[in-house]
Specification:
The chain is α/β, with parallel strands linked by helices. The chain has one domain: Vaccinia Virus protein VP39 (Rossmann fold), CATH 3.40.50.150. 39% of the residues lie in helices and 24% in strands. Strands 3-2-1-4-5-7-6 form a 7-stranded mixed beta sheet, with helices on both faces. The radius of gyration is 18 Å and the shape is globular.
Amino acid sequence: MNKDLQQIAQHFSRAASSYDAQADLQRRILRAGTALIIPHLTPTAHLLDAGCGTGAFARALESKTKTMRLIGMDLAAGMCAASTPCYRAVAQADLAQMPFANASFDGVICNLAMQWVHEMPRAMSQLYAVLRPGGVMMLSAFVTGTLAELDAAARAEGVSSVITMRSAEEYAEACRQAGFHMLGSETVRETHYFERALDVAKHLRALGASKPSSSSGMMGKDRFTRMLSRYDAMHRPDCGIPASWHAVIFMLQKPL
């Protein structure tokens, strides 16, 4: 695991105890994606939750998945520990280096994990490989436009990006290149409001969404303070500091 991945794993491990209290949007996206994939699964399906976090999928769908064999996987040790009671087994692994044999699963849930993967083509190929022919995958990811306001404040301070996002089109092309058939897609766009820019930063930290320190354009304390001041200047009297979230949900199938 390279240094960036190690730091991402550490950030999410530290956030394991605070994540659920901050993850309302993430759960809504998961529910929307789950509604797409469940009709394609049999009651005894073997299912992988790739990027399982604290186990939200298993907990939310317990009544519908009691007879399914659910396996969790996450990059972060803290998330694996938190989700262990929810699954038959949990593996700590990177999406680009999964420890499963080919054609192991009837379905895969990959909710809001792919944006943290550097080697997306390799990860997509791995996800494709572990599915059985005819198997299905729900893939969701935050895309370009997410945290645009924070990103604009960061760029004004010479920081390339706070959290780099790919476009929905890039994800769709990666799915196609891996061999998936697209069965459907949905988009989610929300703007949340906070009292202060610092509250946005605290919210992201509680979710584990922090940029690795080895990434280009990282800021020191003074630059961070100036960035927050620029972000505070975007305050809207009627609602507060805006934070935009854009996500895509894909329903995919591996051909027979």
